[in-house]
Structures are given as C-alpha cells and as structure tokens.
Amino acid sequence: MKPSLFKKLLVTLIAWGAALLMFFPILWMLLSGFKTEIDAVTTPPLLLFEPTLENYEAVHQRANYINSATNSVLISIGATLLALGLSIPAAYALAFFPSKRTRGTLLWMLSTKMLPPVGVLVPVYILFRDLDLLDTRIGLIIIYALINLPIVVWLLYTFYKEVPKEILEAGRMDGARPRQELLYLLMPLAAPGTASTALLSIILCWNEAFWSLNLTTSDAAPLTAFIASFSAPEGLFWAKLSAASTMAIAPILIFGWLSQRQLVRGLTFGAVK
Amino acid sequence: MATVTLQRISKSFGDVEVIKGVDLEIEDRGFVVFVGPSGCGKSTLLRLIAGLEEITRGELLIDGQRVNDVPPDKRGLAMVFQSYALYPHMTVADNMSFSLRLAGVSRAERDKKVREAARILQLESLLERKPRELSGGQRQRVAIGRAIVRNPKVFLFDEPLSNLDAGLRVQMRIEIARLHESLNTTMIYVTHDQVEAMTLADKIVVLRDGAIEQVGTPLELYQRPRNLFVAGFIGSPAMNLLPARVKAASQSGVIIALPGAGELELPDRSNNLKPDEPVTLGIRPEHLHLSQPGQFHGEVIVAERLGSETYLYIQIDDGKRITIETRGDSAARIHDRVGVEVDGRNCHLFNSSGEAI
User: Fold this and answer.
1) In chain A, what residues touch B77 (CB-CB under 8 Å)?
2) CB-defined contacts A:B, below 8 A
3) Which of B85, B148, B179, B274 is least enclosed by beta carbons within 10 angstroms?
4) Do B191 and B161 form a contact (C-beta atoms < 8 A)?
C-alpha cells in the first residue's frame, strides 16, 4: 500500500521539526557569536541584529585557538589510532575464534561504559599525577583511547562478523599466518567498516570534555577546554562563548559533513543489506 | 605420491562427539568421495584432514608422516570450498598466486604458474577480473585454479558444486573428473549428492552420525550395500524397501512372505534366519517389471517420463508405495491397475537390525 499524501506530509513535517529542533541550538550559537554581548542576552531574543566580528577578535586575543585546535587534531587522531591498534586484534580474536565466554567478554567491555566517568576521576587523576601525564597530549591520547575502546571493539567485531570465515580459512590453507590474515585479507575486506569506526572515534574524541577539563590546564588543552575557558571566573560572556564554540566545533562539523556518507553506510552496515 | 591414513580419528565439539573413531586408508591418486546426509560429519572429517579443525583423538598420516600438529599449508593439501571463498578484493590472478606470494615465490615464477593453471582451466581471459565480475562456474574454476597453483599432494573439495545450477553442475563434474585424470593426484571430495559420488569416485565412503557405514567402489555399494542405510542412500530413485516376514529358511535360501499375499524365494543365500522373523526386502527399481499377475498388485499414482526410461510410482494393495523403472515408451498410465513381478535373485534382504544378509 502506498502511503497517502497526508501521511507523507505528516512524516516530512515531523522529520523537519526534529531536525530543526536538533539544529536550533547550533544555529543560535552561530548567530550569538556575531552579536554584541548586550544583544546576545536581550530578552526577547533578537533575530535581527547588526553582525559584528568583535567577539572573534576578542577570543583570538585571549586564547590560543591554533594551539588548542592542533591539540584536538593530534589527540583525536592519536587516540583513534591507538584504539584501533588495540581493537583490531581483539575484534579479530572475538569474531573468528569465539569461545563460550565471547559474549560475556563483549558485554563486560560494554558495561564499563555504564560507569560514570566521575567515579574514577580521583584514581585516574592520581595515576596521571604520579606518571607525569597531567596536561600532556599523550595522557589524553591514552585516556581517550581507553574510554572509546569498548565501542571500537564492538563496532569492529560486528564488521568482522560479516566477513565469511571461509575466506580466512582459505587464507590459512594458502599459508597465511594470523598477521598476514589480518593484513592481507581481513583489513582490506573490512576497510569500509574500519573507516566508519575511525570516523566515529575521532568525533567522540573531539567532543570529549570531561577528561580534557580535568586532566589538562593549558599545554595539552584541546578545543573543549578552550570553550570552557570562556565560561570561567569573570562570569559568562555569551557572545564570546558562542564565538569560541563555533570555532571549536566548525572543523569537526565540516569533517562530519564530508564523511557522513561513509559514516551512515558504516553504522547501518549489516542492518540494511 | 600421497596416501592419507586416518587411524581412529575422533572429533568432539564440547561434549558432542561428531566424528566417532574413523579408520580409513586413502590410496595414492585415488578419488575418494565422502557422502552422507547433512550433519553426518563428512565436512568436519574433511576439515580435520585439511587442518582447519583440531583432531581430538586419533592419528592422521599423510605419506606415512603424522600431521596432527602440522599447520594446514604445510600438509601439502589444497582445498576448494563450497562458497568458493575467493578473496573478493583481489583479481583472479592475485587470488591464484596468493599462496605463492606468502611463500615468497618470485613474481616471474608466480606468473608462470598462474598462467599454467589458467590455461588448464580456460581462465586466461579473466585473470585481471575481480571475483564479483565472474559467473558461478567461473568462480568455481578460479577456486580450483587457486588449488592447482599450489601443486598439492592432495586436493580437498568441500561440496564444490552445490552452489551451481543443474546444467553447470554436470559440466563441472566432468571437468573435475578430467582434472583428476590429467593431474593424477589424490582427491578427497565431500558431497551429499549420491549421483556426484557415484560418477566421480574410485571409492565412496558413506558416513552417518560421524561413523563410516561402508567403504567401497560405486558399484560395490550399489550392488552389495552392507546395511539398510547404505541401500536406501545409494541409488536414484532409491531402492524399494518393504517389510516382510520369513516363511521358511535354510542354508541354501529363504522364502519370505510379502506384504499382501504373495511369496518370494531368494535362492543361494546363506543365513541363520528363523521362520516368522521380520526382515526388510530391498529391490532396485530396475529389477521390478510390469507383469500380470506378478507378486504385487496396485495402482499407478505417478508416471515420470524421462524419455529413455519411465519411473512408475505404484501404490500397492497393502498401502506401501514402490517405484519401478520401465521402458521410455511404456504404455502404463496413471490410475492403471498393474501387476509387478520381481526376481528373487536380484533382491536384497536385511535382518531386523538392518544388516544385509
């Protein structure tokens, strides 16, 4: 049965409504960044205003955007590579050499994501302090890789499950050792899935704020800490905060936009085959 | 030279024993087919030989050497999988030369071997294609080519034709038979299709529930099945199996009472049957003839005309159904009442525990 025009309209309206609702805060932030501080806090909110770049100037003078952005890029990519390096062998083992405990292991890994991070803040902080990892990029790379590890293993595991095991067995008959199986067969075959996983991991790392705020001060501070520095002691400056936020999320937004086809394909892989 | 010897091979998955102490001797250059219904363990047995599964108990010898703990590629075997298992991201040429690449063979040598295999299998024009650009039959040939390139002592085939359509299957069957002839190596072949088994094998191994039921040449199995299972499994259409009772038995022969009213003498059959003992009578469709009166009477319910012969399915009077083979131009039609005659010399007899007498 074909859906009626009314139904189609309704669905379209709901979809647009939901999309706008989700996009509105971002739009508002974008607009506020171009307002004066006074315009930004006026009630009722102003829709028409005279745009200004003074916030961007101020933000630029007060904090080192380039430094934070570089940190974000290095940390996100570094953590993703580290997580992939650990997860690929793990997912390979789980997917192709299942045992009675495979399911339990997977669930256990996921269950660590249910723990509120603040619960381990103090021990992690003390560990970082004693290991001289506070305010270092390598410290954040390690903690980001670890917090994303369960998700990365899970995603890779589902992608690897889709690879017929006979192909790897044929490789084994042809003389492939596990390392060659991974390198020549599994990785090329699961490349789209691995790419989606890496993209998701980069985005999650980019947006992570809890650990970056608590474990960095300035040297290794990524963009999330950069944003937060504008909500601090002198009070809230909405317009400057908005400008800073816009600058912080712009790269990942553009990155996400460019890679969305890959992301959607990867994340719905298997579900719509 | 390659003989494969299985000595009391067992395989368990957890508590479930799927292969139960198999003893088998596979001669050099033989074509051995493992056949049996699904779940009988034939594929597992092949995978044990290949080294893809670990042997739980027993010894596996190739050319007299124990290979239980030798990795698959070092056993000198090559395997063709049911799903072909080609590497989808590699060209046909790369698929075939992958094993050589892993073994560190030079490019020139690899090319030479791939070209040689491609020539044998008529794949020369497809070498640069990816597997997804090939038809099922071509993929199958690439999978065989990948095995040939390794120049193995033993070829293993795991239901290689079951993904092909009927016409192609017959064609590939002939190709595999010719390949065996020209390569002159040992081949072990797994199938559930007894026609494939009959046509390809030097020696058939019939398996059920992880154990060997009978080993023999195709004709031995056909003419002298050791038990009811083999009798029912080998032959198409299947052997007619009818319950009967011993009427009189002596060292020289048996007279049995047929369902319905007739009786049948099976001469020259040494036995220790006792009167009134239940037995099963087995008769191949080609050993039954239309005849009036005959030992059986019934109604034709289906007539399958294949051209060269006709199979008649007859509901006999006590409710059992039998199949008979008649001439292609048989005049019998559906709903005809017919009589069927059988010659006791061509019949098989099985005792109550299913063993042939």
Assistant:
1) 173
2) 57
3) B274
4) yes
* Nearby residues of A216 by Cβ (< 8 Å), 6 or more positions away: A134, A135, A140, A222, A225
Rg, C-alpha atoms of chain B: 24
- Check residues A241 and B60 and name the one with the higher pLDDT: B60
Burial tier of B160 (Cβ tally within 10 Å: 0-12, 13-18, 19+): buried
Residue B271 has a pLDDT of: 78
B237 preceded by cis ω (within 30°)? yes
Q: Which of B102, B149, B156 to mutate to test the interface with A (most CBs of A within 10 A)?
A: B102
Beta strand B154-158 with B186-191 is parallel
Q: Do A184 and B83 touch (CB under 8 A)?
A: no
pLDDT band, residue B11 (cuts 50/70/90): very high
pLDDT, mean of residues A132-157: 94
Distance from the Cα of B150 to chain A's closest Cα (Å) equals: 8
For range B48-52, the mean pLDDT: 95
Residue closest to B199 by CA, chosen among B228, B166, B223, B176: B176
Chain B residues with CB-CB distance to A189 below 8 A: 88-89
Residues in A touching B52 (Cβ below 8 Å): 169, 172-173
Residues of B in contact with A186 (CB under 8 A): none
What's the mean pLDDT when you consider all of chain B?
Answer: 91
> Sorting pLDDT into bands at 50, 70 and 90, what band is B174?
very high
Nearest CA to B232 among B240, B224, B223?
Answer: B240
Mean pLDDT of A173-194: 91
Residues A239, A38: contact at Cβ < 8 Å?
Answer: no
As for the ipTM of the complex, it is: 0.84
Kind of pairing, strands B278-283 and B309-316?
unpaired
Q: Which residue has the tokens 């369960």?
A: A150
How far away is chain A from the Cα of B88, in angstroms, using its nearest Cα? 8
Q: How far apart are CA A127 and CA B235, in angstroms?
A: 74
Residues 241-270 of A with CB under 8 A from B: none
